[in-house]
Amino acid sequence: MGELKVTCDPEDVGFDSARLRRIDAHFAPYVDDGRLPGWLALVSRRGEIAHLSAYGSRDVASGAPVEPDTLFRIYSMSKPITSVAVMMLYEEGLLELTDPVSRHLPAFADVRVYEKGPAFSPVTRPAAEPVRVWHLLTHTSGLVYGFQHVSVVDELYRRAGFDRGAPRGMGLAEAVDRWAELPLLFEPGTQWNYSVATDVLGRLVEVVSGRPLDEFLSERIFRPLGMDDTGFWIDGERAGRMATLYSADRHRRAVPMDTRGAELRRPSFLSGGGGLISTAGDYHRFTQMLLRGGELDGVRLLGPRTVAYMTRNHLPGGADLEEFGRPVFAEVPYAGVGFGLGFAVVRDAARHRTLSSAGEFSWGGAASTAFWVDPAEELTVVFMTQLLPSDTHPIRSRLRQLVYQALL
């Protein structure tokens, strides 16, 4: 699409310009003292970009700056995109939210639940409830992430080679079949736990649509929305725009990681839960489609009722993640926040303890990226950087404070 730039006077859409500049003043020191390599912040209201700022480097060693077209690994910000893909198939009548996943992925026909015992000799029992599509969308399936290092089931995943991602050379179909053989952490639907569930949804998209996940997302979401820079890998021509990935050292300072050019080739494991690369401009278009109820620039991906249904709290009894979730790493605070079909949803802004609106929906990525959509304020925000892990610094809560205090 066109060049990413501010498209309005902030005051015309209800912002105080001087107060918006507090975003830049707050986050610039994160770069100056080495906490972040660089960052980009985009704030939009009523369809207009009111604030766009970038600071620091996409690669510190070369001094190459963060620019509007810089490419970032968005990790778990892939999850809402894959969830939208599933719901597009739902709207076509090709699946139901109550479908047992085994109807489409037979490996899930005989799942078992962990009961007790160590990883070398776990005791399991047959699941009383099948894993359903709804469970995958809401992270209530009982699946886990190996990297969480909390439960015995996490350890079983790591022993099987699933720490971050899949073993080298393993494809998505094989990984999903292997997960189905490992025990669930709990009975489906009884708790919330962040997991590989969205990667299973990616495989579900492949089976139901008959298309590889990368092709489906490109043909049905990215091209129609003009998200020309979003995908699972990049070509050599765009390599210079790719941000270097950094991790936090023991002093919480950013140090570069060697990804060995992985972003330049099609991965064997197409991770719908964490594998996409994108730009702030592309992801802004995705958020605008959601804010507008599934449509952007004459292209409709979802019906407005579907988007509204996805972005309400689906946790049983209207619970929040603190009440219903496992106390493990996630991309948002738990208090006052529920979960929908692919998104965290603010249920109670006061309990959330951060300026926000009831009904705001969001998620983030492992490299400290974040977005949210606030339908009540007609507001969307995208923040891009490249620092693992995402809880190194309080970026997301501070960003919310700084955006909302600028609204008039």
Total number of strands: 17
What proportion of the residues is helical, as a percent range?
Answer: 25-40%
Task: Provide the structure class.
Answer: alpha+beta
Q: How much of the residues is beta strand, in percent?
A: 15-25%
User: Class of the largest domain, according to the CATH hierarchy?
Assistant: Alpha Beta
Q: H/E series, N to C?
A: HEEEEHEEHHHHHEEEHEEHHEEHEEEEH
Low-confidence stretches: none
Q: How many separate domains make up the residues?
A: 2
How many helices? The count is: 12
Give the name of the CATH superfamily of the largest domain: DD-peptidase/beta-lactamase superfamily
Distance between the termini: 31 Å
> How would you characterize the largest beta sheet?
8 strands, antiparallel
Strand order within the widest beta sheet: 3-2-1-16-15-14-13-12
Named at the architecture level, the CATH assignment of the largest domain is 3-Layer(aba) Sandwich
Radius of gyration: 20 Å
The name of the CATH topology of the largest domain is Beta-lactamase
Query: How does the overall form come out from the CA principal axes?
Result: globular
Query: Averaging pLDDT over every residue, what do you get?
Result: 96
Keywords: Hydrolase
Organism: Nonomuraea harbinensis
InterPro entries: Beta-lactam-related, Diverse_Enzym_Activities
EC number: 3.-.-.-
